[in-house]
TrEMBL record:
Domain of life of the organism encoding this protein: Bacteria
Claim: Membrane is one of the keywords in the record: yes
Species this protein is from: Promicromonospora sukumoe
UniProt-recorded name of the protein: CAAX prenyl protease 2/Lysostaphin resistance protein A-like domain-containing protein
Pfam families with a match to the protein in the record: Rce1-like
InterPro entries xref list: Rce1/LyrA-like_dom
Amino acid sequence: MNLSDVTSRAPRVRPRIWIGVAVYLAYLAVFYAIWIVNGIDYARVGESAETLLKWYVAPLAGGLVVITVLVTVLGWWRPSTTGRRSAPRWVWAVPVVMAVVAVVNMIFGDFTTVTPTMWLYLVAGSLLVGFNEELVTRGQLMVAVGSRFGETGVWLLTTVLFALLHLPNYFFGIGSLAFLQVFIQFGLGSVYYLARRMTGSIVPAMLLHGLWDFSTFSANVPWAGLMAPFLGIAGVIVVVVLLRRRRGVVQA
């Protein structure tokens, strides 16, 4: 994150790492509290309209309120959502391939059990997850971490925290697979990071994230899941190459 970008936009509250982490934790607290109250079983989220509403839309709607209020209070909307482009065009290849995989996953998916109400909740939840998780991690958290660290630190810390966001799934129905999910999400988070840096806007990362989740929750085929580790590895490699080329400084 380019510190000059942050300071020139005169946020209401000066960016600090602890503030960004506090916002991140506040979001998680509300999200997981709603999961606990609603009796989440992660493996069954996409089972019916009722499960989608209780375990997908409801916690994300609660999280939306939290992140929207906090970013507004801090005055971090502009630096959290915009910045300068900082990656060559060829970097588009990884996010584009990820989007293609998500679309192919849906093309070959089985939607015979998906009702109109389920489609509504799937679309709403996917838009919310893209907006919320990107604003929390590759938005306000990048602003906070960028107040002290260079680009390598911004990528590494924000992507690690994004990956760890999924670790509590251990307690909500998937057990030890949550550790594998954390590693995969670190890679996918790097792809979302590339989408953010390539365009200078958080919107493409939000849309890609939402598309991916929509594909994996709606289509009963495993192609996206099987491809996820490879996409993640490609994303990490490309980020590392960019950081090395720019000697650890990729401007936001």
